[in-house]
Write a structure and sequence with these properties.
The chain starts with 5 loop residues before the first helix and ends with a helix. The radius of gyration is 23 Å and the shape is globular. The longest helix is centred in the C-terminal third of the chain and has 23 residues, at 350-372. Helix 6 (170-178) links the parallel strand 2 (160-164) and strand 3 (186-188). Helices cover 43% and strands 13% of the residues. It has 446 residues and is of the alpha/beta class. The structure holds pyridoxal-5'-phosphate. The site of pyridoxal-5'-phosphate (PLP) has 13 residues, from helix 5.
């Protein structure tokens, strides 16, 4: 009963495809957000349900949401969810290959590894580098902090100290907490007028901490801060890290993709000197949620920090020549995560991605320039595709924009003050949407 016959399969697939088609076609006109309630549906019945009915229920629930897939979602980090990636996921899950250990599907692991190798080249990492696809940058960061600790401190040392800025993402503090470093071991380095890490200040703090008996071991540079898109002086941080023997982790969860464009590569200068880089293809490569990546300068160090074995795995061959991903991260069983990035890259071609990232960059520059012309607004420093600004009553302005149902934006705090934030990143967002937003803001700011 759990295995439907061919006819039923065809019917189910048709029902699902029709639903998805209608959903995608409706995105242009869909409201930017719809109110929702979190009422628990009844538990599963003992008897079978009908797929069309169940999909209707899903659709009803999914529609009470912020329209994160639509072209007018410009809050947080829009991830449109490439259709090619959705299809890849369908195929990968249908074949259900095991890729925790390479020998059960070596050619598939090689496909996934080819993307990691390509990314290492794009980021300028040397031979011996490597990495792993994760479910997101938070887990990539956890593995990076754990690897840094193992490599630089050896055994756990509660005196290990980590350097961040006020604009570092909270996933670093979370990873530090999980790996056993209390909040007071996270040292917050001040930033310069451009909100970038003040590297001489970091150097002074490191010296002071060493003198106080602490063990500085990890410094975080952000490539594309969540609130502002601003990039820390990565090259300078790399020099400091090298001099002080600190592990240099770059949080490029958002900004990493800009390494694929000429303009972006210039902004990210120094990223090739990182010991580890976290990046989210589910942000700046337009993939559906659930795809992050960790790249490391030394795959051997990542393996040394994560490898484990069990008697029940003794039949497996570990000499395939491609990584056993279970040795490079906390997971053992994992789906064939590589196809959801491999297929889009090959199907669309890399140039299409470089062009799309450049397009978003242009759109954000256009937004910054046009908003600066509105007298009642103050446009603050930002970079890449994030735009931040204030008005006399920023909270009210945000509410009015979002209440329009046309666009959905989010906010942040800069210098302790409420600030509106726009991020242009969906593959579905184009010039006409951005111009429509500028018009709306102009009207509401008059
Ligand atoms: C989004 C983000 C993260 C967290 O990534 P998840 O994929 O949500 O786990 C970490 N750092 C930065 C800079 C981010 O923008």
């Amino acid at each position: 009963m759990l295995q439907p016959d061919r006819e039923t399969r065809a019917e189910w697939t048709k029902t699902v495809t029709a639903f998805v088609e209608e959903f995608i076609e409706g995105l242009e006109a869909a409201p930017a957000s719809s109110p929702g309630t979190a009422l628990l549906p009844p538990p599963p019945a003992e008897t079978p349900g009908g797929l069309a009915d169940l999909l209707d229920r899903f659709s009803g629930a999914a529609s009470q949401a912020v329209e994160t897939a639509g072209p007018r979602y410009l809050a947080y980090f829009p991830a449109g969810g490439l259709y090619s990636s959705v299809l890849a996921e369908f195929v990968a899950q249908a074949t259900n290959r095991y890729t925790g250990v390479a020998s059960t599907a070596p050619a598939l692991v090689a496909m996934e590894h080819s993307v990691i190798r390509w990314l290492c080249d794009e980021f300028g990492l040397p031979a011996g580098s490597g990495g792993i696809f994760t479910t997101g940058a938070s887990l990539a960061t956890l593995s990076a902090v754990h690897t840094a600790r193992q490599d630089r401190l050896g055994a756990h040392d509660p005196n290990g100290t980590i350097y961040v800025t006020p604009h570092t993402h909270h996933c670093v503090a979370k990873a530090a907490h999980i790996t056993g470093f209390p909040p007071e071991r996270i040292r917050v380095v001040p930033t310069d007028a451009h909100l970038r890490m003040d590297v001489p200040a970091a150097q002074a703090m490191i010296a002071e901490d060493r003198a106080g008996g602490l063990r500085p071991f990890l410094i975080i540079g952000t490539a594309g801060a969540t609130s502002t898109g601003i990039v820390d002086p990565l090259d300078e941080i790399a020099t400091l890290a090298h001099r002080e023997s600190l592990w240099f982790h770059v949080d490029g969860a958002y900004g990493g993709a800009f390494q694929l464009t000429e303009r972006g590569r210039e902004i990210l200068t120094g990223i090739d000197r990182a010991d580890s880089i976290a990046w989210d293809p589910h942000k700046s490569l337009f993939l559906p949620y659930g795809t992050g990546v960790l790249l490391v300068r030394s795959e051997a160090l990542l393996r040394a920090a994560h490898a484990a074995d069990g008697d029940y795995l003794q039949d497996l061959d570990h000499g395939t020549g491609v990584p056993d991903y279970s040795d490079l991260g906390p997971e053992l069983t994992r789906e064939f995560r590589g196809l959801r990035i491999w297929l889009p890259l090959h199907l669309h071609g890399v140039a299409a991605f470089r062009a799309a990232i450049d397009e978003k960059h242009d759109l954000a520059d256009h937004l910054r320039a046009e908003l600066a012309k509105i007298e009642t607004l103050e446009v603050l420093p930002s970079d890449l595709t994030v735009v931040v600004f204030r008005s006399a009553d920023s909270e009210q302005l945000l509410k009015r924009i979002n209440d329009s149902g046309k666009f959905f934006l989010s906010s942040t705090r800069l210098d302790g003050k409420f600030t509106l934030r726009i991020c242009v990143l969906s593959h579905r967002t184009h010039r006409e949407h951005v111009d429509e937003l500028i018009e709306l803001i102009r009207r509401l700011s008059a």
